[in-house]
Amino acid sequence: MRAFLAIDLPEEVSAALTRLQAGLPVGRPVAEENLHLTLAFLGDQDEVALEGLHYELDALRAAPFALRFSGLGAFGGDRPRILFADVAPEPALTDLHRRVIGIARRAGIAVPRERFHPHVTLARFGNGAAPDVAARLRRFLTEHGDAPLPGFGATGFGLYESTLHPSGVRYELLARYALG
Ligand code: ATP
Ligand code: MG
After folding, report:
1. What would the DSSP string read from start to end of 53-89?
2. Which atom of ligand 1 is nearest to the CA of 30?
3. pTM of the prediction?
4. Helix axes 47-58 and 91-106, enclosed angle (nearest 10)
5. d(CA 176, CA 8)
6. What phi and psi values does residue 84 have, to the nearest 5 degrees?
7. What pLDDT, in 10s, does the model give residues 62-113?
8. Closest residue (by CA) to atom 16 of ligand 1?
9. Cα of 141 to ligand 2 centre, how many Å?
């Protein structure tokens, strides 16, 4: 199954992100209940590997920490693929990311070596937005890119299964790991 680890957002944060999204004239917005901060994308894994990972993550001890947003951004350059809310650098988050990646590797899960850029995806533009769509997104970023967003405490993260349905992607919480 396709799996990932993500920090859940408090309701007031998801609500604020959804209000911001509502003003976006282009792209496919991420449903409010699906908004999350990916800690590690695990890809397709069998149940045995995920069970091993689960026991290791259950034993992980880490303190909760505060996170804040630092504006909006887009990945994909001239042909944007996603719009996201950027998460301000936080050493405790980087550290947690490093630890869970290490745990996943020890559990036999080959996590790709990618730079960790913590963000919350707000909308998707497929393989790359057409020039007119990109222009409207740029205008949105100029107007709303520094809209204030509430900070929040990261109190835990979840192991999620991701399945694709005709109506869109669905995430199912398999296990939750509390911080502190
Ligand atoms: P969809 O792919 O249908 O648009 P999605 O991207 O939300 O939906 P998944 O592809 O299962 O669903 O991804 C789950 C989470 O992992 C998302 O936050 C996604 O951005 C992230 N993710 C997916 N692929 C990668 C990857 N190769 N590297 C890093 N993060 C990834
Ligand atoms: Mg995806």
Report:
1. HHHHHHT-----EEE-EEEEEEESTTS--EEEEEEPP
2. 7
3. 0.96
4. 130
5. 10
6. -140, 160
7. 999 999 999 999 999 999 999 999 999 999 999 999 999 999 999 999 998 8
8. 41
9. 22
CA dist 147 and 41 (Å) reads 28
Nearest ligand to the CA of 171 is: 1
The SS3 assignment for 15 reads: helix
Q: Ligand 1: distance of its center to the CA of 111 in Å?
A: 13
Out of 35, 169, 170, 173, give the residue to mutate to test ligand 1, the one with the largest number of ligand atoms within 8 Å of its CB.
169
Find out whether the beta carbon of 173 lies less than 6 Å from any atom of ligand 1. no
Q: Quick: pLDDT tens for 132-145.
A: 999 999 999 999 99
Joined tokens for residue 109:
């899960």
Q: Is the CB of 45 under 6 A from ligand 1?
A: no
**Three-state SS for 8?**
coil
